[in-house]
């Protein structure tokens, strides 16, 4: 089963259990991946979170029920996971722009989110710059924070705030002084914590370092791996986000490679990250 089929199978599972309180672990298990990787790929391909997708779909189906006029509003609210009519009304108005009562009386237009079908772009219209390299294990040193990747995905907000702190208090310059390892540049490293703490990731801002521990910094051993290294050209963060999306919507479906699991790297080289000529990289372990 390809990862595209696995993703679609997981989405179908979500649809079959929209009215149930299913966990992210259950959804990801259907896709044969970790909660973090499922949510990451889902967000890259759909530009929304898993939680938001399910909320939109429930409110779409709720609107269809209200238009039929066969059930009380309070009963529809409970069916679609809302404990009070007030919370249902707020969520309904936010999505549809009208109240449940107005929907029932056929007043006003509503917004429908249809069942999702994953489609990928295999034509490769725009070239991708990449190479596959084998690399021995290496050590990184830096600072890390843990983020939950369920619900509203606090990492989407928390990671940029972490970068702002590191760049603002001089930690970035301190790290670069210890960058004597085989990978040059400041690293953003995503480490899935599914085995010991499901639904969480450790995010590192670090550098490759040889020579053991560094006082005041934490360390992580990045295992030996085969890496797909993608060149990213353009201003941050847009260029990096667009490249991630192309990797999963174009490159993985057509390359024959799979994500091998393990830490993933964003490598930020010297230069002006706001420049359209800025060069950075994405490193993904593959098999």
Automatic annotation (TrEMBL):
Which Gene Ontology molecular-function terms are recorded? DNA-binding transcription factor activity; sequence-specific DNA binding
Print the keywords alphabetically. Answer: DNA-binding, Transcription, Transcription regulation
Q: Where is the HTH araC/xylS-type domain?
A: 8-106
This chain belongs to the protein called AraC family transcriptional regulator
Q: Which InterPro entries match?
A: AraC_E-bd (IPR010499), GyrI-like (IPR029442), Homeodomain-like_sf (IPR009057), HTH_AraC (IPR018060), HTH_AraC-typ_CS (IPR018062), MarA-like (IPR050959), Reg_factor_effector_dom_sf (IPR011256), Tscrpt_reg_AraC-type_HTH (IPR020449)
The organism named in the record is Halobacillus faecis
Q: Which PROSITE patterns match?
A: HTH_ARAC_FAMILY_1 (PS00041), HTH_ARAC_FAMILY_2 (PS01124)
Q: Which Pfam families match?
A: GyrI-like, HTH_18
Q: Does the keyword Transcription regulation apply?
A: yes
Q: Which domain of life is it from?
A: Bacteria
